[in-house]
Specification:
Number of helices: 12
Strand content: 5-15%
Shape: elongated
Bound molecules: phosphoenolpyruvate, manganese (II) ion
Largest sheet: 8 strands, parallel, barrel
CATH superfamily of the largest domain: Aldolase class I
Order of helices and strands: HHHEEEHEHEHEHEHEHEHHEH
CATH class of the largest domain: Alpha Beta
Structural class: alpha/beta
CATH topology of the largest domain: TIM Barrel
Number of domains: 2
Helix content: 40-55%
Strand order of the largest sheet: 3-4-5-6-7-8-9-10
Number of strands: 10
CATH architecture of the largest domain: Alpha-Beta Barrel
Length: 366
Amino acid sequence: MRENELEQLRLRIDELNEQLLELINERARVVQQIGEIKKRQGTEPYDPVRERAILDRIIAKNNGPFKNDTLKHLFKEIFKASLELQEDDHRKGLLVSRKNKTSDTIIDINGETVGDGKQRLIAGPCAIESYEQTRKVAEQVKKHGVPFLRGGAFKPRTSPYDFQGLGVEGLKILRQVGDEFHLSVISEIMSPQDLDVAEQYLDIIQIGARNMQNFELLKAVGTSSKPVLLKRGLSATIDEFMKAAEYIYMAGNENVILCERGIRTFERATRNTLDISAVPILKKETHLPVFVDVTHATGRRDLLIPTAKAALAIGADGVMVEVHPDPSIALSDSAQQMDFDQFDSFIEAIKPYGLHTSVQESRLPR
Ligand code: PEP
Ligand code: MN
């Protein structure tokens, strides 16, 4: 008789589980509908005030035997799962999301590819200071088979009294040197009004960390036919970073490269904190190539080799570094740029970790 009773109760539990399952999924479907409405309204999925009100209502109706705290815990798990579902749906909606396009975005820059599994380097001075300085660096960059030469012309400086860059003159020097050495060139612009001149002189347009949420600039470069390297903002979450990339992509420019460059934390040992796990997360969440700028991430010359190795080992599509003929007299970032001997050692050290170098001499017309 007891055996039979236990069997009956177990059957009842199975039945209740099925009902719970049905209810919980029914609830999830309603949550998804709410998520759709919120997405159209542009509101965030998480609403703590609403969550508090739901919990209060549940607790008020609780007749036991579960304690209020236990119920709170159980329902909070349901809320968490529901929120993840909504966020997942939101992300699926992004054009840059891998859920939207499963294949990797591969970008062709004058015959050199980015995002196809070959791990590349972008190297050059922090700022273009003169034709001679840029030329000397380009020689070294070329010598090592690095296809991309960087150099800042419009410099985002914390202090308005610091060197602001040579502006258009700097872009002209970069182009001239790039052409001499058959290197593709990349530089930052800070304002939509510089887009025309950037398109005239550059192969890749960089959007700096400080401008990751300059939405008008993002929309402007979104209309360009030039690839864009977008740096992660100083205190941007991965989600905000992806949404910034979405602005560019949505405006029609599908050639977007993401660049992790460290984020601001309480840690003072490095200039920024390199969020290395952002690389595999971005590779998983998006279909865009992901670079790591180890120079600005660390602000320390002695950490460039280990962090570049880490970036390559974790699956970055490339690394960015700064090189200067004489860093001690550099007009910006003198503490972290490499001199030529250090650059030689850097290349030798990271080559075994998968760095792809090129011997291509010819260059397609721009
Ligand atoms: C740069 O690459 O020149 C630069 C200023 O970097 P960030 O925008 O990442 O600080
Ligand atoms: Mn710099």
